[in-house]
């Protein structure tokens, strides 16, 4: 396999079928990171895509980017991971999405083979069942403001100034102006990491404490 291939730009090696009566819901996620659409085969995969799109350490990613083949019990087996991501430091990250209750012997073998392959080439491998509920809820909300059209330079600078000291979300937005105008910009700044709040343990709301990140 050509490990120098930019798999984060690779087309999917297999399709995402859609048919009447299927239990999963495939689709396309528009990525604010790449400005392109990335496929998913279930809502859990969509949520994992959303987390990668939000992650400031990930600069690009693609779905179903390659086949890994290996021999086991005198048979040739293969597996296409769900995602390949390129980290800001250049390292590769392979992600497979499978909830714990759906990991059977066949997928256990596939994940083990993928983990060994990634270790050999210096990539990271991560199997996930999807983000925790609170983070998932918060990112679903913020993702609605991920597009650059939600950014307004003047309002953004005023918000960054207000939240240079930790301030409640709604209070800070109202200090800058009409909340109908300022909140979309504020949510966009939270999505892009220019402002931060606790997204892991508290549902985002008016009293959420927002601050500028410590860049030291």
Question: What features would you describe in this structure?
Answer:
The structure is a single chain. The chain has 216 residues and is an alpha+beta fold. Helices cover 33% and strands 20% of the residues. The strands form 4 sheets. Strands 3-6-7-8 form a 4-stranded mixed beta sheet, sandwiched between helices. Strands 1-2 form a two-stranded antiparallel sheet. Helix 1 crosses helix 3, helix 4 packs across helix 5 and helix 5 crosses helix 6. 30% of the residues are buried. The model has no long low-confidence stretch (mean pLDDT 93).
**Secondary-structure element order, as H and E?**
EEHEEEEEHEHHEHHE
Shape: elongated
Radius of gyration: 20 Å
Order of strands side by side in the largest beta sheet?
A: 3-6-7-8
Number of strands: 10
By DSSP (H or I, 4+ residues per run), the number of helices equals 6
* Sequence stretches where pLDDT stays below 50 over 5 or more residues: none
User: What structural class results from the helix and strand content?
Assistant: alpha+beta
Features:
216 residues, alpha+beta, 4-stranded mixed beta sheet, two-stranded antiparallel ribbon, 6 helices, 10 strands, 33% helix
Short structural summary:
Helices cover 33% and strands 20% of the residues. It is built from 6 helices and 10 strands.
SSE diagram, text form:
Blueprint: E1 27-30, E2 37-40, H1 43-54, E3 58-63, E4 68-72, E5 75-79, E6 83-87, E7 92-97, H2 105-121, E8 124-128, H3 133-143, H4 153-162, E9 167-168, H5 169-176, H6 179-192, E10 209-210
Parallel strand pairs: 7-8
Antiparallel strand pairs: 1-2, 3-6, 4-5, 6-7, 9-10
Helix pairs in contact: 1-3, 4-5, 5-6
């Amino acid at each position: 396999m050509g490990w120098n291939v930019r798999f984060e730009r690779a087309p999917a090696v297999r399709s995402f079928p859609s048919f009447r009566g299927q239990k999963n819901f495939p689709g396309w996620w528009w990525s604010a990171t790449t400005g392109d659409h990335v496929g998913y085969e279930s809502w859990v995969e969509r949520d994992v895509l959303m987390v990668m799109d939000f992650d400031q350490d990930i600069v690009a990613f693609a779905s179903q980017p390659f086949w890994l083949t290996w021999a086991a019990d005198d048979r040739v087996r293969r597996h296409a991971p769900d995602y390949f991501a390129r980290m800001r430091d250049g390292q590769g990250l392979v992600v497979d999405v499978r909830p714990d209750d759906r990991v059977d012997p066949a997928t256990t073998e596939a994940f083990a083979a993928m983990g060994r392959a990634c270790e050999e080439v210096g990539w990271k491998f991560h199997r996930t069942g999807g983000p925790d509920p609170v983070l998932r809820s918060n990112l679903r909300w913020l993702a609605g403001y991920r597009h650059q059209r939600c950014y307004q330079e003047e309002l953004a600078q005023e918000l960054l100034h207000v939240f240079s000291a930790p301030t409640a979300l709604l209070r800070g937005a109202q200090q800058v102006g009409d909340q109908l105008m300022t909140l979309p910009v504020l949510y966009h700044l939270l999505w892009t990491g220019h402002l931060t709040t606790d997204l892991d343990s508290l549902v985002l709301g008016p009293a959420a404490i927002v601050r500028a990140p410590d860049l030291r």
